[in-house]
Amino acid sequence: MKTVRLCLFCLLLAGLPFAADARGVESTPGQQTLQAAAAEEPLETKISGRDVIFGQGTPSITAVETDDGGIGEDLEVTITGVNTEFSQTTPATAWLTFAAATPITSSYTSYRSPTKIVANFTIPENAPIGLWSLRVRTPDNRTAEADNIVEVTLAAVQPLSPAIDATCVAPRTGFRWQAVKRAREYQLQASYSEDFSNPVIDQKTQELIYRPDEALEGNQQIYWRVVGIGDNGVTGNEMNSRFSTGLQPAIERQGGSLHCSIQDADSYQWYRDGTPIEFATESVYQVTQPGEYLVEAETFGCTMLSEPLRITVSVDDCGLVRPYISLSPNPSDGRTVVTTHSCNDAPLTIRVADVRGQEVLQFSSLMTATSFAQELDLSSLAAGVYYVHVRNGNRVKVFNFIRQ
Q1: What is the DSSP pairing of strand 241-245 with strand 166-169?
Q2: For residues 67 and 111, which has the higher predicted lDDT (pLDDT)?
Q3: Residue 158 and residue 156: Cα distance in Å, rounded?
Q4: Rounded to an integer, what distance in angstroms lies between the CA atom of residue 191 and that of residue 272?
Q5: Which one, of 74, 143, 85, lies nearest residue 114 by Cα?
Q6: Which of 2.60.40.10, 3.10.200.10, 3.40.50.720, 2.60.450.10 would CATH assign to domain 159-245?
Q7: Which letter does DSSP use for residue 38 in this model?
Q8: Which of 42-56, 207-221, 246-260, 380-394 comes out lowest in average pLDDT?
Q9: Residue 34: its pLDDT value, please?
Q10: Does pLDDT of 402 surpass 60?
Q11: Which helix (H) or strand (E) holds 64?
């Protein structure tokens, strides 16, 4: 909100007949009274919209309080004047003018006192950008004016993401905001200080989203704002926002183990392919099979996930992932998958037997890849328990499979 105070003495004199001086020109009675009063005490003590001296003078605007008017938005203007005789019963009318543009008439005015009203306007989307003049019609059908007093500009840009006062925001976050009418581009600023001194981001873009190349600092409060830029470089209103970043962990691979970059977190949880790994709640995790790994760390009451790290096992990577054999799902309706990992080419044999030891299925293959998956279809078997015997090279594992 800004206040513009006009030259009250000049405005009041403008409302009086031209007066005499000591050189012989006749004075009006009102002017003689003004001169006599000025000799007795400072003029300011006699200036009042209700004073008998100026009660019949021309109405004048002495102060205007308002923000800049954003196109397409509502605008509230507080108007103070003298000789205005504003009334509760007969509302005043206010309007804005700009060269040959269509005037903007107030949607309504609110009475505050005989010398003060609040006028409400809706700025059209096609309104010219620049300084508009203000006109007020008093209840007795007289007009007060103030030239080039209300600035119309682009509307304020609404920040969308991160939301205001959001917490635990990832330091490598993106910024998103709402479009405003007649903006050619936008300027984004982000800073660790509320006055935006030394911004860490100061970027112009024509898009409505921006993702910085470098991460922000963790565990910090970030202030950010976006302004629209229109034709001829005209900038719009500002709307500031803020959020707090958390400490985002990172995964560091060291041989066959994964390390969380935050060593003193309050808690940890490791994930493989989006599923929590049971008992993997320390800062270091020993990898046992390929997949996409994440680590979740809680610090200062803020829980954040790392960026994913994909572990792809090859023949040259055998030192990272230990050989294994698994069977899943179990129980099932008869369809299940045997998954194996081996560092060398090795024969694979799968045998399925019932509880009496009678073999009901056998499968053999030579593994030529380090990881291998074989689907088994046991849906034709009766419901019950079966033994799935898997041999992969020198490794042997037997599963109790439940056919539902």
Answers
A1: parallel
A2: 111
A3: 6
A4: 36
A5: 85
A6: 2.60.40.10
A7: H
A8: 42-56
A9: 33
A10: yes
A11: strand 60-66
Strand partners, 143: 137
In contact, 262 and 249? CB cutoff 8 Å: yes
Helices (H), 299-401: none
Is the pLDDT at 403 greater than 50? The verdict is yes
pLDDT of residue 125: 92
User: pLDDT confidence of 394, banded at 50, 70, 90?
Assistant: confident
- Check residues 71 and 257 and name the one with the higher pLDDT: 71
CATH architecture of the domain with residue range 251-314: Sandwich (2.60)
Tell whether the model's pLDDT for residue 397 goes beyond 50: yes
| 309-315: Cβ within 8 A, 24+ apart | 309/251, 309/253, 309/258, 311/253, 311/287, 313/289, 313/341, 313/370, 313/371, 314/370, 315/343, 315/370
Nearest to 343 by CA among 317, 366, 365: 317
SS3 state at 33: helix
The CATH architecture of the domain made up of 1-153 is: Sandwich (2.60)
Q: Where in the chain is the domain with CATH 2.60.40.10?
A: 1-153, 159-245
Residue 21 is encoded by which pair of tokens? 């001086």
Helix residue spans in 187-340 (DSSP H): none
**What integer is the mean pLDDT of 18-32?**
38
Task: Identify the H or E element spanning 147.
Answer: strand 143-153
Using CA atoms, how far apart are residues 342 and 324, in angstroms rounded to an integer? 7
Place of tokens 């001086």: 21
- Give me the amino acid identity at 284: V
CA distance 339 to 324: 8
Superfamily classification of domain 323-403: Macroglobulin (MG2) domain (2.60.40.1930)
